[in-house]
From TrEMBL:
This is 8-oxo-dGTP diphosphatase. The keyword Zinc-finger does not apply. Its cofactor is Mg(2+). It catalyses: 8-oxo-dGTP + H2O = 8-oxo-dGMP + diphosphate + H(+); 8-oxo-GTP + H2O = 8-oxo-GMP + diphosphate + H(+). PANTHER family: 8-OXO-DGTP DIPHOSPHATASE, NUDIX HYDROLASE FAMILY PROTEIN. Belongs to the Nudix hydrolase family. Keywords: DNA damage, DNA repair, DNA replication, Hydrolase, Magnesium, Metal-binding, Mutator protein. It comes from the Bacteria. One of its GO terms (molecular function) is 8-oxo-dGDP phosphatase activity. Residues 8-144 form the Nudix hydrolase domain. The lineage of its organism: Bacteria, Pseudomonadati, Pseudomonadota, Betaproteobacteria, Nitrosomonadales. Pfam families: NUDIX_4, TMP-TENI.
Length: 329
């Protein structure tokens, strides 16, 4: 019997995405690695190794105090990315840090810089960027609200009116999901929806129809559970998301290379009264450790946004609640 090769030890790291609001918009912080450390001069999200006996959150608080001289007040668990360098395999436990006390001060002599975030654009204007952190920028650029269409219930004209109103108020990500609509009507609505959204700088995901995404110039596809199970490779579209209900489906979405996922139902819904739902604790357990952003869906309102962040979600997805009745434009 031959010896089996040992798996490389994984180094647990706590990483902070510090986010602040300015007059020009949201910004995130990058720090440059000091000259006495490996990968010196590379830019990264601040943080450091999780020490024995620490949780990732405890390590985050300690590292930001030691490196930047700040006391973390609010940190939301986000995504977990694993990366293998020549010298080590690291697992980066990312937190979005939105509130802290104290002024940033580079205690280790490192440089740091604030970089802009806008819808679908989180840009690092500095280089070189540490390889493990580059994919995080795409995830960071996703908006906190994902709206799902409700044209079959509202009627096409009323839906488009409310869509324009929502776009004027900042909506930047929409899924067109109208399963009961005849295909010719859906195609016509998709054309109008995409044109309206693109005029406002918003993205449109089509539910399930990869070919229609390509034909009409939509921005991506929202894969159904059946598609997720059957596909062997990621569709060749700009953005790809998956609708998930279980841990197995989330893992499948990661393996397939999806950009983000929907996880539902979190709370009881009007469309499925009495049906089982996850609840926030189960949602958090399923989301923990996921490498792609997750939107919480099912029975939610805008007031649930912070609760979703506390439980590991990137944001919330809304159906009826995304289209409140308002005055005509």
């Amino acid at each position: 019997m031959t010896d089996q090769p040992l798996s490389p030890k994984i180094v647990e790291v706590a990483a902070a995405v510090l986010v602040r609001n300015t007059a020009a918009g949201e910004e995130f912080l990058l720090a440059q690695r000091p000259a006495d450390k490996i990968w010196a001069g590379f830019w990264e999200f601040p943080g450091g190794k999780v020490e024995s006996g620490e949780t990732a959150r405890v390590a985050l608080v300690r590292e930001l105090r030691e490196e930047l001289g700040i006391a973390v007040q609010t940190a939301f668990p986000w995504i977990v990315r694993q990366f293998t360098y020549p010298h080590a395999t690291v697992r980066l436990n990312f937190f979005r840090v939105t509130a802290w006390q104290g002024e940033l001060h580079p205690h280790e002599g490192q440089q740091f810089v604030w970089q802009p975030i806008s819808a679908f654009s989180a840009v690092a204007h500095v280089s070189p960027l540490l390889p493990a952190n580059a994919p995080v920028l795409r995830a960071l650029s996703l908006p906190p609200l994902y709206a799902i269409s409700n044209a079959s219930e509202l009627g096409e004209c009323e839906f488009l009116r409310r869509l324009e109103q929502a776009l004027d108020q900042g909506l930047r990500l929409l899924q067109l999901r109208e399963k009961s609509m005849p295909q010719d009507e859906l195609r016509s609505l998709a054309i109008r929806t995409i044109a309206l959204a693109h005029a406002h700088g918003a993205k449109v995901m089509l539910n399930g129809d990869i070919e229609l995404v390509r034909e009409l110039g939509a921005d991506g596809v929202q894969l159904t559970g059946t598609q997720l199970a059957q596909l062997n490779e990621r569709p060749d579209v700009e953005w790809c998301a998956a609708s998930c209900h279980t841990a197995e489906e989330l893992r499948r979405a990661e393996v397939l290379g999806c950009d983000f996922a929907l996880l539902s139902p979190v709370l009881p819904t009007l469309s499925h009264p009495g049906a089982p739902h996850l609840g926030w604790d189960s949602f958090a357990s399923l989301a923990a450790g996921c490498s792609i952003p997750i939107y919480a869906l099912g029975g939610l309102t805008l007031k649930d946004s912070e609760t979703s962040w506390q439980h590991g979600a990137h944001g919330i997805a809304l159906l009826r609640q995304a289209w409140p009745e308002g005055s005509s434009n």
